[in-house]
Amino acid sequence: MPVTLSDRLSAELSGLRESGLLISPRVLDAPQHARTTVDGREVVNLASNNYLGFANHPALKARAAEYLQKWGVGAGAVRTIAGTLRIHEELEEQIAGFKHTGSALVLHSGFSTNQGVLGGLLKEGDLVVSDELNHASIIDGLRLTKATRKVFKHADPEDLDRVLRENPTEGLIMVVTDGVFSMDGDLAPLDRLVEVARRYGAVTYVDDAHGSGVMGAQGRGTVHHFGFEYADDVIQVGTLSKAWGGVGGYAAGHAGLRQLLINRARPYLFSTAQAPATVGALAAALDEVQRDPTLMERLWANTRYFKAELGRLGFDTFGSVTPITPVIFGEAPAAFEASRRLFDEGIFAVGLGFPTVPRTLARIRNIVTAEHTRDDLDRALAAYEKVGRALGTIGG
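Structure tokens predicted for 8-amino-7-oxononanoate synthase:
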């Protein structure tokens, strides 16, 4: 007898439940802010990717409403048939100008962007070398290609050099890395990785989901931070759902990249274009970050303060150098229990365990934003101290 759907679901869910890994998302009852309401309780929010406070920003909401009234609720078709509105192309020109690249294309999410760009560029006979800690969307995007796939040790230019040296090819060579790694909050050493890639004639592909809006002047990203924004042999992709407060993905780089992706990127070819309100909000976000320098200043001042105080209390933040600040608890049950206790103290910070992170490195990932006040952060630090001492994570 074949396995029934009910049996499969029951077995899988029981296994997750018994291992302490079953996820039950909490529900927000108010807009995304530094302080919000979760499951009916007001909390300090350290769980969202709303780095610049744009998710409920008045300027973004006003532009979204303007575009909604003028352009309607939907585009009505895929971009290649009848779904390309003038505002789509204007947003892409705006992104290319902001990123200092020859072209840009907007897709539907950061995840689908990696599928579309990697699948559209790489062919059989090509070589792609990927950082071992790259995001799941990169891993899945590479699985869709027929290129030869190799992995190099995390953020290790010497190991990248070894892999490239041992795998010569006549096809396109691509080095793929996150810009900011989403679980650890560390930066890819792009200056050294690009140097190695160029030695072998390789293109460097940077997923800057957590770097765009965070790193570089005015949030132009990790590629800008390292000085490669004008380089035709560097491709940057990312999401528009984190610092930019909306939803979508982008690919920016060589002047010819956009035109090829219009013809080859399957998520672009087979998905209805983004809604006008979303386009308006994203256009306003790009304007706002350039208009108001205090956004980036507050983001980084809050980041430095929170990291320093966690370190003073004795927590292991895993060497993070970005607003992503992990606090290591070891095994998943300990991280989940810490998250529950923090919530009881009015702090919304989510525990992460295997398979999202390695088994012995379960953590709570905190993201500090420009919107947090010093009072928010002090309240969170007091809760962390209480919970950390109670669980024995820090000394009492």
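The chain has 15 helices and 13 strands.
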